[in-house]
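Design job #97: recover the sequence.
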């Protein structure tokens, strides 16, 4: 492992030198007449390009890292762009000037002024090339960072909503489990056969809850099957005092948020009186627009159960993550109705 890393570094270094040699000779095509080309000219172009290009290249890379720490793209995009372009433009100009000066100083027989005048066209071409490369590199870097920032923000949003969504499901489970165990305790003392069936249905319900932990959407058909098991448990608890009618014409392949129907039925049971004198009526049906409607009669309890206040509000929050369609809530004097959009596959 220790031998491979230096080997790669040498290869990268040689690759960089080769790139600079090619760039130096390509740029010289625009300034040196064809009849003047020779091996000596090619080698001179290589040395000149490496002497100026390599410090400029590595110096710019180092300065970009410094700016990334001081002025990160995500926080200061405009300021970073302006500072980076201006500073690297000045830096490149200084590198070219000092590199050329050193080259002239090494060759004692050369006069700086005369050589500078003769080489000025070439230096202009080099500077324009470096400047355009700098602009292009900054533009690519800017849009790359902008894209990464957008993706990062979207991932953070999804992670936040997914965590919130999981939290909402967790709030449902303890309340449901408490009521289910209370019903089972009563049933064990009256009808052991039904108690056994109740346990099987309860296990089916919790198997569904466990299976859907990682799913943000489920097919309508699966949610309806879960709802049937849940209704069975509630019918054992309330008997004929709870009347639930289901009439659906939905495409079973459409998707919906897990537990959304159960949440609405639970909400109706929690907030309304259920007795022989005041049976609770719940209708579940679909519309032509492939929506699910849960409607219940209103007979508010005199003593309300403690509520976390998360029912419909939580469902609205979860729905906003997947579709622009909104929940439609109609709260009349004698009925409460919620229309839930389904999501096409």
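Job complete. Output follows.
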């Amino acid at each position: 492992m220790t031998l491979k890393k230096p080997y790669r570094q040498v290869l990268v270094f040689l690759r960089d030198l080769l790139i600079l040699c090619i760039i130096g000779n390509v740029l010289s095509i625009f300034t040196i007449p064809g009849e003047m080309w020779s091996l000596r000219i090619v080698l001179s172009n290589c040395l000149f390009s490496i002497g100026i290009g390599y410090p400029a290249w590595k110096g710019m890379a180092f300065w970009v890292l410094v700016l990334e720490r001081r002025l990160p793209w995500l926080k200061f995009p405009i300021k970073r762009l302006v500072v980076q372009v201006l500073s690297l433009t000045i830096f490149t100009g200084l590198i070219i000037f000092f590199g050329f000066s050193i080259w002239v100083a090494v060759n004692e027989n050369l006069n700086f002024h005369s050589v500078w005048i003769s080489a000025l066209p070439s230096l202009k071409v080099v500077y324009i090339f470096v400047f355009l490369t700098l602009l292009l590199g900054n533009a690519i870097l800017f849009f790359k960072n902008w894209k990464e920032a957008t993706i990062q923000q979207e991932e953070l949003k999804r992670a936040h909503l997914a965590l919130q969504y999981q939290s909402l499901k967790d709030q449902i489970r303890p309340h449901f489990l408490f009521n289910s165990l209370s019903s089972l305790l009563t049933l064990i003392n009256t009808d052991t056969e039904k108690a056994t069936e109740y346990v099987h249905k309860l296990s089916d319900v919790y198997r569904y809850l466990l299976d859907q932990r990682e799913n943000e959407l489920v097919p309508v058909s699966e949610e309806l099957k879960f709802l049937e098991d849940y209704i069975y448990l509630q019918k054992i608890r309330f008997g004929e005092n709870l009347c639930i009618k289901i009439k659906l014409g939905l495409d079973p392949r459409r998707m919906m948020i897990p537990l959304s129907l159960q949440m609405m039925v639970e909400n109706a049971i929690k907030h309304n009186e259920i007795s022989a004198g005041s049976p609770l009526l719940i209708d579940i049906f679909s519309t032509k627009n492939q929506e699910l409607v849960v409607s219940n009669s209103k007979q508010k309890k005199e003593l309300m159960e403690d509520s976390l206040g998360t029912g419909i509000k939580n469902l609205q929050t979860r729905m906003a993550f997947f579709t622009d369609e909104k929940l439609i809530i109609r709260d009349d004097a004698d009925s409460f109705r919620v229309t839930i959009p389904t999501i096409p596959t």
